[in-house]
Structures are given as C-alpha cells and as structure tokens.
Amino acid sequence: MIARTQHYDPRPRPRRALAAIGAVTISNTSRLLLFMSFATTVAFVALRREAWRGPVWAQFKRVLDEVAVRSLLTTVVTGMLVGFALVTQAVYWLAQTGTTGLVGPVIVILLIRELVPILVGLIVFGRSGTATLIELGEAQPKGWLRLLEIQGLDPLALLVLPRAIAFALGSFCLATVLLCSTMLTSYLLAYGLELVAYSIWDFADAVLRAMKIQDFIVPPLKCIVIGYMVALTCCSTGLGRRDESDDLQRLVPRGFVRSALAILLVNTLFDLVA
Amino acid sequence: MAARPGRSVLSLQGVALADRQFSAHTARLDLELPHGEVALVQVEDEHDAALLVDLCLGLADPGAGEVRFLGIDWATHTPRERFHRRRRIGAVMQTDVWPSHMTVLESVLVARAYHFNQPRAEVIADATELARLFGLPGLPAGRRDATPMRALVRAACVRGFLGSPDLIVVQDQVLDQSSELAVPMAQAISAACDRGATVLWITASLATQAAQFVHTNQAFRLGDHGLIRVRRSR
User: Fold this and answer.
1) Cα dist from A132 to A231, A250, A252, B159, whole Å
2) Residue of B nearest to A143 (CA)
3) CA B48, CA B46: separation in Å to the nearest integer?
C-alpha cells in the first residue's frame, strides 16, 4: 500500500478550479505553439536544397511508396463505398425530388470540398501514420535516436522531413484517386439504377461547371496540408515517447486523437478562409 | 599533460561530470588527446560512461569547464553546427542498437552517405574491407532482427571506423567482453592512428581482453574526483 500525502492549498475552491483551468490552457497553448513552430521549421528546412541529401531522398521515396502506392487499393475501395453511399443518399434524393440538375453542386460541395480531404487524412493516418508512430516511438527507448545524433545525423532532416513531404504529396495523389473512384462508382451505380439518364461526359461536365476557380486550388491544398499535419503529428507523438514506461499501445490512440484533431482543424481553417 | 589545446583533437578542461549514478561527488575532468594517440579510460558505471561520451561528442553541455573538439569548444556551436562537426567522429558504441526502418547495411552507410558526396560503390568497398578485417564475409544486408548478434557487433565496429574520422570513440560493454575482436580492434585502431586519428576507448575495466592488444599512450581511471592516470599492466 502506498501512502500519498496531499499538498495543502489554502486558496478557496473556485480559485483552485480557475487555476487548474488556467494551467491546462497555458500548457496546451504552449504545446500548440511549439507544434506550429515545429511545422514551420520543417517547411523551411524542406525548402533548403542541402537538406535533401542521399539518405533523405531514399527515405522520402520509401515513405512516398508506402503512402501513395501501397494505400492505393484501400483508397479505391473506400472511394467505391463512398460512391455507393453518395448514390443511395444524395443522387437518390435528388432524383426523387426531380432536381438531378443539382448533382454537380452537391458533389462539389459535399465530396470535393469536404469529404475527400477528411477521408484522405484518415486513410493516410490509418495506413502510414500508425506505422510511423510505432517506428519512431521506438527511437528514444531503443536508443537509436541517440545513435543518429552521435553520427551527426539530424533527426529532423533524416526522419521528419521525408515523412512530412511524402505524406503531403501522397495525400494529394490519394485524394485524386479517391475522387475519381467515388465519382465513377456513383455515376455507374446511378446510371445502372436508372436514377440518371445522361452520359458520363454530361455528368463530368455538370460537376466541372459547378466548380469555381478556388475549387481547383483550395481542396488540393487542403489535402496537402492535411497530409503534412498528419505526418508531423505522428512524428512528434512518436519521437516524444521517452522510455518504455510509456506503453506503445497507448501511443497509437494518442496519435489518432491528435491526428483527427489536426485533420478537422485544418479542414475548418480552410473552410473559414476560403 | 603536455599537449596544447590547439593541437589536440579532443580536449577536456576542468569539465564537471555531475549527476553520477553511484557517486555523490562531481568529478573534474582534464584530458588532452593529440592526433594519432590512443587513450583508455576505465569507467566502471555504464551511466557515467554514457555521460562522458555525451560530453566528448557535444551531445550534452558540461556544468563547468569546456570540451574542445579540433580546437573549438562545443558550446560555441549551434545544434546544427554540432551535427555537422560530428561527421568527423566515428563511434563504436551501442552495438545492439540499430534503426528499425533501415537494413544493417543502410545503417552502416547512412552517415557516410549523408555527410560526404562519395560514390556509394566506394563506400561499400571500404566497408566490406573493414567487415573482412572484423571477421565478416561482407556487410549484413538484412534487418537487425534477422542478423545474428555476433554480426551486429562486428557491423557496429565497421560503422565506427568507416571513413577517416579524426576521433574514434569506443564504448560498449558487449565489445569489452569479446575476446575474439581483440586483434581486429587493435589492427583497426593502429591503422586509424597511423592515419592521424585519435582513439578514446571508454571501458568498464582496463584489464578487459578486448583492449589487451591495443597500444595506448594514456590510460586513466574515473575516480570520485576525476580522472586518475594509471599504468597499464600488460
């Protein structure tokens, strides 16, 4: 049995509660500021040519392959399932109300601007982010982070930079694949169920006409930033594991919560700005 | 210690080694390692040995005193500059530690490929030659989990001696206990010293078999208050 002594605080209960809220707010704000400075540093380092040395390129190619190529099947299947949901909900109800002409704007707003970036963020986290968490979660406890530092290898350049850029580019690629597979599936299904009668070209034309110029810029940019943030969240959470007492099993849920928050936060910020 | 700080590869002047595990005293360290010399330092506690390595390699700042590598105090460098300067240091340590996302071969070559623009074939040829010296037919190409411990220890030796580092720091208990590596280590150290490199071997015991064939210029023991010069019995 362990006896615990409680520190006596003479302040009244409301003041103690306020102090506790204040302490949590200050701690989380400083953590957020630290993360933002980390994200900015990685972005600046990525712009420096000398940062892209041989081993960094090799890591970048490996991670990009993992994110963009190995997640392809998952993304296509997700796109097909989302396409099916889109038909059963959006297109079906538009057909029921006789407003199939609104299919373009509905798809643009629902799919391109909102759904695809969030889904891609979740796919990237699930497929590659968890692997990064576990991989980098062992760096400090197993001692190889110190080994890299001894060899003069900057962990920011060798571990974080290639992952951040590969996740960002991979997210853009996966978003394109997800969008195409979703739209193709939803059209074929709607056509097969005779919910729409026009050709695939007319369908594509309706979607493109509903898109504004910013729809060609903001959603891709959103996907890139989401991928970048997921990578940084996973890297910082993984590298933040100091020793074996911090269970590896707790690292993945922690990383998931942080990544999900980052995805939703980036999505909201883009919606507000654009 | 006659060597002047400017001439030394590694120089510790009045360095305080605090936060020791089994000693309440703060040891004061003074050490000069000129080019081409070998120093053997007995540090019985592994925690203290790791602290000493961190100080020598600029991974940690001393509470007092200064640590100079190639004449320049680590404290005057930014973290980025410190990383860059460590390209001139070879480390034979943590023989059981290998990054999980790289093969043993990649891990041996990574520092060389990162810091120097040497063709990969040349680096592999140098590494293979060293691997043969340490009794391996070549460099292990698999991951850490699929490589026997015996090969990992030897690959770690290759990792430390690869290239032409100015300073080679040896510190590993597995290596201390390996009598098989005594002769290859002595040969590798001798070749490095002939090239002008300096070797600092931090060992758990000066009587260790692994270091018995090494010709040392200086030998010390870390006591409660600092480094004590000792004479090695051979």
Assistant:
1) 8, 14, 10, 25
2) B97
3) 5
Taken in order A68, A74, A80, A82, the sign of the CA dihedral is negative
Q: Which of the two residues, B190 and A246, has the higher pLDDT score?
A: B190
Q: How far apart are CA B139 and CA B137, in angstroms?
A: 7
Instruction: Look at the block and give the residue holding tokens 């509905």.
Output: A106
Domain layout of chain B by residue ranges? 5-226
CATH topology of domain B5-226: Rossmann fold (3.40.50)
Residues β-bridged to residue B89 = B167
Q: What letter represents residue A202's amino acid?
A: D
Whether chain A has a CB inside 8 Å of the CB on B78: the answer is no
> HSE of A208 in the Cβ direction (CA atoms, 13 Å)?
7
B167-171 and B198-203 beta bridge pairing: parallel
Sort strands B66-69 and B72-73 into parallel, antiparallel or unpaired: antiparallel
Model confidence pLDDT, tens digit, residues B77-136? 888 899 999 999 999 888 888 888 889 999 999 999 898 888 888 889 999 999 999 888
CB contact B99 to A (< 8 Å): yes
Q: Is A18 helix (H, G, I), strand (E, B) or coil?
A: helix
H or E segment and range at residue B219? strand B218-222
pTM attached to this predicted model? 0.85
How would you classify the pairing of strands B27-34 and B72-73?
Answer: unpaired
Contact list in A for residue B111 (CB cut-off 8 A) is 151-153
Q: What is the ipTM for the molecules in this complex?
A: 0.88
